[in-house]
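Quick check before the chapter quiz. The format below is the same one you will see on the exam, so make sure you can read both the input and the output lines.
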Amino acid sequence: MSEQTKKIEKLLSLNLNLDKFYAIRIYENLITLQGEAKKITITECEAAGFVFRYEYNYLEAKKDGVEITLSFNL
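Here is the expected output.
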């Protein structure tokens, strides 16, 4: 199995609704997801074990090589 396929399988194993994110990037050692800070998205990510911290105008969480950034519409 290729490394990219493994990364995609890891992403899918998180059981997150990927339609909630407007940017998904897969790097060599990191997967990043970006989306809007909506309650349903935050709740879903927290249920998957992500713990957010507030940074200026966005929320950020990191877990097992996956980084999620959720921005607020101002």
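If your answer matched, good. The beta strands are 21-26, 31-36, 53-55, 58-63, 66-71.
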